[in-house]
Amino acid sequence: MTEPALERWRLVLGEAAEDGLGGGHLTAQGQSRDAALDWLYSRDEDLDRRGVRRPTSRHGGDGPSVLTTVDWLDQITRLFPKETIERLQRDAVERYQIHDVVTDPAVLARVEPSAALLRAVLRTKHLMNPEVLRLARRIVEAVVRELMEKLATEVRQAFSGAKARRPSRFKLARNFDVRRTLRENLRHYRPDERRVYIETPHFVSRTRRHLDQWQVILLVDQSGSMVDSVIHSAVTAACLWGLPGVKTHLVAFDTEIVDLSGEVDDPVDVLMRVQLGGGTDIARAVAYAAQLVEQPRRTIIALITDFYEGGDPERLIRLVRDLVQQGTKVLGLAALDEAANPDFDRGTAQRLAGVGAFVGAMTPGELAGFVAESIGR
């Protein structure tokens, strides 16, 4: 095994692997990287339980002076590639709860915006003074801008497909209907030549349909476990806002209701207003959404929650049943984010599915596609 490979394994496995790898595999830069990694991962209490720490470890106090978070951020920025820096920052905040990464002005001025830091800002902004909030907003703006650019493309693609496909007498190449042409000319297939001879080509009209007004009501559970879905709901609402034929509402809830529809075009302001945590009264939120419905058969309510109901579950089921029976499309989304990996109360979710709600998890692009398909019918 080459020396660079041995050094990488030594950095991955930590100080406890020193003897097993034969020792002496760290260059000067490797030693600096090892110290930066050790500053973070030596906090893992499981190391002592598993007997991983070496008896001669510097944790006895014979090592270098303790780094501050600012020093550590400066070091990892100098020593590691961008992807590794983002992982280290995420672990610092989410795994080891080093909150000064997002609450200390000196640290915030150096930190690289990322999705993990955005989640940390939303969880800790109630601890921040005005100066820190101003710096933290930089993280929110940078990450939201990146998400907006990505999702806006997905939304445009979804809605560009909501077009009429009527037969057309205008024979333009871009309007060539491949499926219908093949289907209706299969009788001219010649097996010996393995070819279909086209006698009658077909074309379609791509004139956009007239879109009657639809309502899309996003009901977002702002409990702490739903932070990724809160972020993507705010961005999704902003991308849907202003689309032809779509009236967008954004409502956050815990045990109280916060209607953010007036700020839906500015997801940064929306996220800075969200208060994560607290209880959950899903039924109350659904009742509020029901009051917003103008035309039931032209309304989509996306209930984004983990379905752990702290209010009245029987009332929740009854409200959703009534909405479905009047023609409203109800989506029960256990997650709305890029991963769409849900963690939810399956019992409540199954009961909602039983009264006609569509229950599952979606990425923002999939939700946009569902909305586009619904209003384009």
Under the CATH scheme, which architecture of the largest domain would be assigned? 3-Layer(aba) Sandwich
User: In terms of per-residue confidence, which ranges show pLDDT below 50 for 5 or more consecutive residues?
Assistant: 54-65, 207-211
CATH-derived topology of the largest domain: Rossmann fold
Question: How much β-strand is present in the residues?
Answer: 5-15%
CATH-level-4 superfamily name of the largest domain? von Willebrand factor, type A domain
Average pLDDT for all residues: 81
- In N-to-C order, the SSE pattern is HHHHHHHHHEHEEEEHEEHHEHEHEH
Using only C-alpha atoms, the radius of gyration works out to 27 Å
The total count of strands amounts to 10
Main β-sheet: number of strands, strand sense, barrel status? 6 strands, mixed
Tally of domains: 3
Structural class: alpha/beta
- CATH class wording of the largest domain: Alpha Beta
Q: Gap between N and C termini, in Å?
A: 62 Å
Pfam family, one: VWA_CoxE
InterPro entries: LolB (IPR050458), Uncharacterised_CoxE (IPR008912), VWF_A (IPR002035), vWFA_dom_sf (IPR036465)
Protein name: VWA domain-containing protein
Domain VWFA: 213-372
3D structure, described in words:
This protein is 47% helix and 12% strand. Mean pLDDT is 81; it is low at 54-65 and 207-211. It starts with a helix and ends with a helix. Helix 8 crosses helix 9, helix 9 (130-160) packs across helix 11 and helix 9 (130-160) crosses helix 16 (364-375). The chain is an alpha/beta fold. It has 3 domains: 3-136, no CATH class; 166-205, no CATH class; 214-375, 3-Layer(aba) Sandwich (Rossmann fold). The protein is built from 16 helices and 10 strands. Residues 213-372 form the VWFA domain. This is VWA domain-containing protein.
